[in-house]
């Protein structure tokens, strides 16, 4: 199934082979190719390159051409302020500065930057034939605000007829833009009208519904799919949006996804969203993004849903966060892993494993979902299983299935973030990769060598010389001192024990003297209370 | 100026033209503020004017947000970056944020707490300037206008000279209905002393000794417990309904409806085709004016009677059924 087909299935309310994913990449794609927002949004070449990079990194099913709600406004004479890391902002509103509505014309396909957007659309269509290409148009209410400014809220009461005339014009602009994008190759036209979040459903039905309905009718008549994007606190308007003739509603984190799911299913339209833009995708870590995506997938179900960010991705969104989302979209196994980790233990539950790996034997831990149920886990366990016997009892291995709580605690205590993972003596060594036999052997051998060095360095010993002070004892002491001198073992203690009772405590009879007992000490822990599981490992060495 | 561990934040909201500029400058001039080396986060679009002399004289740091409005768009990176800059500068003890008329105060507070510099900011007060003559009109159409009042710690009712005593009394009731806990001050031409906003708690600039928590202008601490004590029920709605009719409207019956709705009817404006006496009618808190009908309005709707009603503290269905008795359909 191609990405485009997945999107089409979702719009039809059907279940595809998986949930489709559409990262709303706007000026963020500029960041991906090292361009600032202004340069990026003014060049078809850069948009083409940025979208190609986003497609490569994020493996989407659909992609917007541009996410810039000022394209139409600029073509209609609004003054823009450009920024390096944001789409431009409208700073001057022609209808608030002396221009009359009758003097405005619906812009043609080459006006302002519309030509750039359409050229980029044609190239993206050609370069990515299997993806659903989204053309984004400015919704009539938001465009009206661009043209008139916030005076519109007063005029809705003072001069509603003027507001309607303005919205009729904005509808005509939206209809024209939809046709341009469809002709250039877009599969989906998304009407983006964030400013509708500022009004209530009564005003929405009066000032928005009639105009967006016309636009959605045009889109359908021209054979494309339509989506209605809104962001902000717009929950109150979801029911009226669902009745506006669109094929899909896409929302941000300000609206509960379950609410949108119910409203959209009631009207047999698809829905999308609502990955958290700021707190998760921009400021969070890849695992946060995955957990958030998983939560969306779990709430939305598999029918009629398109996973997407709540709105235009911030310019500096870390790409790894979006790649992490793509990972769980494409790989059900990774989804299961995150699902397990979603119940991650809190810090108090973590074990203190600083001393882990101080046993004589080398311990290989394999953190898995479950080797009986997941192929990569099985291959990793098999790899270790085959290699371990070659170390003749020095290497012991264990599988930790994170479906069990204690294994999850162990995993988080070792700071393991992905499964399957191989840890050797508590150190993460192989992450989500089955090591070739030689590599695994080399890694274990390296650890054995390290341990040997550490052992020699950390061991201390005392030689107890047992027996009376006589000639034989004197000869024994001389031999010991010579041996120590020759080996440079200056830190080995020597104690002479003459007391018979003391000698008996070492299990030596008086008749067996002179005798030598060597006692070795190994530092196992300093300044901390080792966990029971760690002490058990030490004790196993004695057996 | 010594480095402070946290930055005191004042949020200043209100619809365009309500009089935020004067209030902002009053805040900047308030005793102790200069010692805190305040920074400003302002919006180029917001048309707010900061007293140039003040800015220059005190070398105020201005962080401008390149957005049509704070938070009308989803991308908040500009604001987050400005917060980071203020926090990292480590030289500001105070921050004044100008929220445009269409900003949701909840979003601003949320980003202060959950942004990339959590713990560096403490909200000292959320002040909302209300235009006495225009608030009930804009509130019916613009949700954030109500939300800004709802979350404010202090309300400055400005332009009181533009309304009569009855209108002001109704406005007070409306505001109290939205937010019964905020300190309310009334003024004209934006004249307000910051001390009057800060009375009762020592939460003004430099007033760190008064409280350790998040003090508000009226001295209350904006702690989770305090927020939890705020009324959770939605305030009485201010809503607008448009009506049309192609019938001639019986004037007596129409007046009866207006009387019946009483103070629930805040405003009415539009063409009403009274039998033999069509008029463009405007009603504000019971005060009625008439002029010649506006033909454009009727042409747009294709109806001789077209008017919009703004009401509050009642059920929309009650308003609809009341006007239905005059053959007006909403």
Notes on the protein architecture:
The complex is a heterodimer of chains A (543) and B (330). Chain A has 543 residues and is an alpha/beta fold. Chain A is 46% helix and 16% strand. Chain A is built from 23 helices and 16 strands. Chain A has helices spanning 3-11, 28-32, 37-41, 44-58, 71-75, 114-127, 140-148, 152-158, 160-184, 201-207, 209-221, 238-242, 257-266, 277-282, 286-300, 319-330, 332-341, 375-387, 405-413, 437-458, 471-487, 500-505, 532-542, and strands at 62-64, 79-81, 89-92, 132-138, 188-192, 225-229, 248-250, 270-275, 305-309, 362-368, 395-401, 421-424, 427-431, 459-466, 493-497, 515-522. In chain A, a hairpin with a 7-residue loop joins strand 2 and strand 3 (89-92). The longest helix of chain A is centred in the first third of the chain and has 25 residues, at 160-184. Chain A is elongated. By secondary structure, chain B is an alpha/beta fold. Chain B folds into two domains: 7-229, P-loop containing nucleotide triphosphate hydrolases (Rossmann fold), CATH 3.40.50; 238-324, CobW-like, C-terminal domain (Hypothetical Protein Yjia, Chain: A,domain 2). In chain B, the strands form two sheets. Chain B has a seven-stranded parallel beta sheet, with helices on both faces. The longest helix of chain B is centred in the middle third of the chain and has 14 residues, at 165-178. Chain B is elongated, with a radius of gyration of 23 Å. The model of chain B is unreliable at 44-57, 68-73 and 200-221 (pLDDT under 50). At the A-B interface, strand 3, helix 8, helix 9, helix 10 and helix 14 of A face helix 3, helix 6, strand 8, strand 9 and helix 11 of B.
């Amino acid at each position: 199934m191609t990405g485009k087909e997945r999107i089409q299935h979702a719009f039809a309310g059907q279940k595809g082979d998986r949930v489709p994913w559409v990262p709303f990449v706007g000026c963020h794609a500029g960041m991906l190719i090292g361009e600032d927002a202004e340069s990026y949004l003014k060049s078809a070449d850069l948009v083409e390159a940025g979208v190609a990079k986003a497609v490569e990194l994020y493996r989407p099913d659909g992609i917007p051409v541009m996410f810039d709600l000022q394209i139409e406004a600029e073509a209609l004479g609004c003054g823009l302020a450009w920024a390096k890391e944001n789409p431009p902002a409208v700073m001057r509103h022609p209808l608030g500065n002396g221009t009359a509505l009758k003097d405005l014309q619906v812009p043609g396909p080459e006006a302002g930057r519309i030509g750039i957007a359409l050229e980029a659309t044609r190239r993206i269509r050609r370069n990515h034939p299997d993806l659903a290409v989204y053309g984004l148009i400015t919704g009539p209410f938001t465009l009206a605000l661009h043209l008139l400014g916030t005076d519109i809220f007063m005029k809705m009461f003072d001069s509603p007829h003027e507001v309607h005339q303005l919205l009729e014009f904005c509808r005509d602009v939206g209809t024209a833009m939809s046709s341009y994008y469809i002709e250039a190759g877009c599969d989906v036209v998304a009407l983006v009208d964030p400013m509708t979040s500022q009004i209530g459903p009564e005003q929405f039905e009066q000032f928005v519904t009639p105009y967006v309905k016309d636009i959605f009718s045009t889109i359908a008549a021209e054979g494309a799919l339509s989506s209605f994007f809104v962001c902000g606190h717009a929950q109150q308007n979801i029911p009226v949006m669902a009745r506006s003739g669109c094929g899909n509603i896409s929302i941000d984190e300000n609206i509960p996804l379950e609410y949108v799911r119910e409203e959209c299913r009631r009207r047999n339209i698809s829905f999308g969203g609502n990955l958290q833009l700021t707190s998760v995708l921009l400021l969070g870590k890849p695992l946060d993004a995955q957990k958030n995506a998983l939560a969306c997938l779990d709430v939305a179900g598999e029918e009629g849903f398109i996973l997407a960010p709540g709105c235009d991705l911030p310019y500096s969104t870390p790409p790894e966060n979006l790649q992490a989302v793509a990972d769980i979209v494409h790989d059900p196994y990774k989804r299961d892993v995150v699902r397990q980790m979603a119940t991650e233990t809190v810090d108090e539950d973590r074990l203190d494993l600083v001393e882990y790996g101080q046993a004589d034997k080398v311990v290989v831990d394999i953190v898995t979902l479950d080797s009986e149920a997941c192929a990569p886990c099985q291959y990793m366990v098999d790899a270790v299983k085959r290699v371990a016997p070659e170390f003749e009892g020095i290497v012991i291995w264990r599988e930790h299935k994170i479906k069990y709580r204690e294994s999850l605690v162990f995993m988080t205590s070792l700071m393991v973030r992905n499964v399957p993972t191989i840890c050797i003596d508590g150190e993460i060594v192989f992450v989500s990769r089955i090591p070739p036999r030689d590599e695994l052997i080399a890694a274990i051998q390296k650890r054995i060598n390290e341990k040997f060095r550490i052992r020699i360095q950390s061991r201390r010993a005392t030689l107890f010389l047992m027996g009376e002070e006589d000639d034989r004892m004197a000869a024994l002491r001389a031999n010991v001192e010579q041996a120590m001198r020759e080996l440079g073992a200056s830190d080995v203690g020597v104690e002479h024990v003459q007391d018979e009772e003391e000698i008996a405590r070492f299990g030596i009879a008086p008749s067996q003297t002179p005798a030598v007992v060597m006692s070795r000490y190994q530092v196992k822990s300093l300044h901390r209370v080792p966990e029971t599981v760690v002490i058990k490992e030490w004790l196993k060495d004695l057996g | 100026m010594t480095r402070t561990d946290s930055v005191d934040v004042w949020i200043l909201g209100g619809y365009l033209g309500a009089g935020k500029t004067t209030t902002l400058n009053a805040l900047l001039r308030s005793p102790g503020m200069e010692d805190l080396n305040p920074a400003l986060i302002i919006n180029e679009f917001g048309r707010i004017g900061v007293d140039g002399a003040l800015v220059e004289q005190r070398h105020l740091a201005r962080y401008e947000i390149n957005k049509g409005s704070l938070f009308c768009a989803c991308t908040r990176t500009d604001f987050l970056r400005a917060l980071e800059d203020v926090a990292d500068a480590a030289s500001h003890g105070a921050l004044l944020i100008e929220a445009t008329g269409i900003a949701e105060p909840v979003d601003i507070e949320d980003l202060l707490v959950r942004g990339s510099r959590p713990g560096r900011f403490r909200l000292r007060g959320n002040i909302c300037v209300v235009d006495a003559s225009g608030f009930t009109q804009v509130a019916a159409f613009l949700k954030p206008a109500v939300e800004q009042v709802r979350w404010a710690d202090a309300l400055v009712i400005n332009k009181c000279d533009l309304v009569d005593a009855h209108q002001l009394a109704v406005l007070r009731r409306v505001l109290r209905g939205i937010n019964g806990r905020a300190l309310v001050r009334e003024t004209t031409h934006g004249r307000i002393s910051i001390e009057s906003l800060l009375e009762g708690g020592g939460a003004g600039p430099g007033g760190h000794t008064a409280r350790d928590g998040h003090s508000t202008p009226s001295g209350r601490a904006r702690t989770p417990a305090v927020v939890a004590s705020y009324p959770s029920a939605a305030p009485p709605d201010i809503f607008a309904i448009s009506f049309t009719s192609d019938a001639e409207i019986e004037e007596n019956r129409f007046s009866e409806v207006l009387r019946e709705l009483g103070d629930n009817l805040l405003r009415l404006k539009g063409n009403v085709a009274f039998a033999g006496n069509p008029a463009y009618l405007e009603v504000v808190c019971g005060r009625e004016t008439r002029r010649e009908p506006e033909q454009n309005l009727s042409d747009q709707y294709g109806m001789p009677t077209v008017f919009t009603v703004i009401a509050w503290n009642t059920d929309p269905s009650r308003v609809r059924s009341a006007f239905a008795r005059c053959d007006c359909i909403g």
